[in-house]
Amino acid sequence: xxxxxxxxxxxxxxxxxxxxxxxxxxxxxxxxxxxxxxxxxxxxxxxxxxxxxxxxxxxxxxxxxxxxxxxxxxxxxxxxxxxxxxxxxxxxxxxxxxxxxxxxxxxxxxxxxxxxxxxxxxxxxxxxxxxxxxxxxxxxxxxxxxxxxxxxxxxxxxxxxxxxxxxxxxxxxxxxxxxxxxxxxxxxxxxxxxxxxxxxxxxxxxxxxxxxxxxxxxxxxxxxxxxxxxxxxxxxxxxxxxxxxxxxxxxxxxxxxxxxxxxxxxxxxxxxxxxxxxxxxxxxxxxxxxxxxxxxxxxxxxxxxxxxxxxxxxxxxxxxxxxxxxxxxxxxxxxxxxxxxxxxxxxxxxxxxxxxxxxxxxx
Length: 363
Prior knowledge:
Shape: elongated
Mean pLDDT: 96
Number of helices: 12
Number of strands: 14
């Protein structure tokens, strides 16, 4: 190992948690981590640089790393696209040899890993590192293999998060505990037949918020759904492509091809007033409305048994976004005892989050 490259870099051990998020929502992501840590009785501090697409929580006591990981599982975090445990910060990486100091830092930690992934944030500065991430991954993987650090049966994966051309965070996650997609972003292709790009929001939601078994059970051909605020049909399109019958409620026009499918009934009506004659399998909603008003509407449908499960977006205010989300989720919990809520700010979401609501009878 070339000593000069290793000695020129600076490796600082750090214990904590790192998440990737939408740029501009670092404060919300850091707030989630801090709140979960406090609820678990863990001491530390949050770090969030605006526009970076990264937030982290650093522990005062390194022995509480496992407790922090248990308190902040990725599926329970709303504003995190993925989440890893933080082990070290490596600075001053020499541009002629980044592999040697990174290998040395990983070896210092003394763990084995099943695989290595080199990541970058989804931000202006992070995307500038995408080419470096691609070129760095193969030689770093080779060096780790030769050093005996990688073992296929190891319990954890290693993540190298590039924060600059000469800096990185070393992180890890138990196998299956972090997002399966690089950067926590499923790579979806816009269907040319879809009427709007909003269709990708529902496609991503069904991929991220449901597992494969749930998709098989709950998205069967012949099921019935209602799409509130449907026009021009981006969300309806995702249901129709799965052969689900849709009642599209909106005063605006729907894409003609959807109406010609034979699976869509278009009702020009007020989505806040209309109700189906009998319960439907799904209620979906992407209306541009105050989040608490949408939450109350969904709660009424579920409480009254008008739908078996619901998937909807909450458009967030400019300020106190996380506080508004928690108020809306509390409203749903109070209205439907025992409800399970899975909430996430998806890649295709913007100033909004997506929520899957499952009352006890739906599970």
